[in-house]
Amino acid sequence: MISPDLISTADLQALLQTWGYGVVFGAMLLESAGVPLPGETVTLLGGYAAGSGHLNGVGVIAAASSGAILGDSIGYWLGRRAGWPLLLKVARLLRKSPEQMEVLRQRFLRHAGKSVFFGRFVALLRVFAGPMAGAVGMPYGRFLICNVAGGLLWATTMVSLAWLGGRWIPMQRMVEGVMQFGLVAMALVLVVVVLPKLFSRWAARP
Fold first, then answer.
1. Which residues make Cβ contacts (< 8 Å) with residue 69, sequence separation at least 6?
2. For a Cys staple, 63 with which of 24, 127, 150, 184, CB 3.0–4.6 Å?
3. 147 falls in which pLDDT band (50, 70, 90)?
4. What are the sequence ranges of the domains in the chain?
5. Is 55 within 8 Å of 20 (Cβ atoms)?
6. Are 36 and 93 in contact (CB under 8 A)?
7. What CA–CA distance (Å, rounded) separates 84 from 96?
């Protein structure tokens, strides 16, 4: 993903004020389709704008999730058509070696469904999850279920956290802390999803 440091906060604010939800939708559509754009940053700023009263939070969630889901589906079919060589070409633009991509591919193959579902919270997988699922031949029906569920969870989590941040955190700090913000969201997801399962298993023991 393109570094947030290379993006003017003022430009992003102007885009959001002018185009609003369309900017969020377009950024997530392109990033999820495999174009290394800062979709996460734009989504966070959209949530921030909702928290400060400039946009509607539900509208930002709808724009981000629909863009992410549609973009991932486009990425899936691109990966299905073009295969692994296309991913390696895109990876070179992101300064990722073939060895790194092979490690990512092997991990993806072992946990394809989880990779698509939780890949939203990982910068590299957010760009490659769709094309990689298509390239390795993951069934589209299974991919679509994981894609929709993951897109809705990611958009709701990120926009909600950014909405809260919009009330207390300066926008410049929000942009500078995008990666840390994503890690916090991932931790919250793990707490919500993993801990209840572990607790239920523990409670089921005689």
1. 32, 147, 148, 151, 152
2. 24
3. very high
4. 4-204
5. yes
6. yes
7. 14
Q: Indicate if the pLDDT at residue 66 is higher than 90.
A: yes
Q: 102-105: list long-range contacts, CB under 8 Å, 24+ apart.
A: 104/128, 104/132, 105/132, 105/136
Query: DSSP characters for 155-191?
Result: HHHHHHHHHHHHHHS-HHHHHHTHHHHHHHHHHHHHH
Residue listed under structure tokens 């709808």: 62
Q: Model-level pTM?
A: 0.68
Q: Which two tokens stand for residue 59?
A: 């509208």
For residue 136, what are its two tokens?
């390795």
**Side chain identity at residue 47, one-letter code:** G
DSSP assignment of 114-159, as one string? HHHHHGGGSHHHHHHHHHHHHHTT--HHHHHHHHHHHHHHHHHHHH
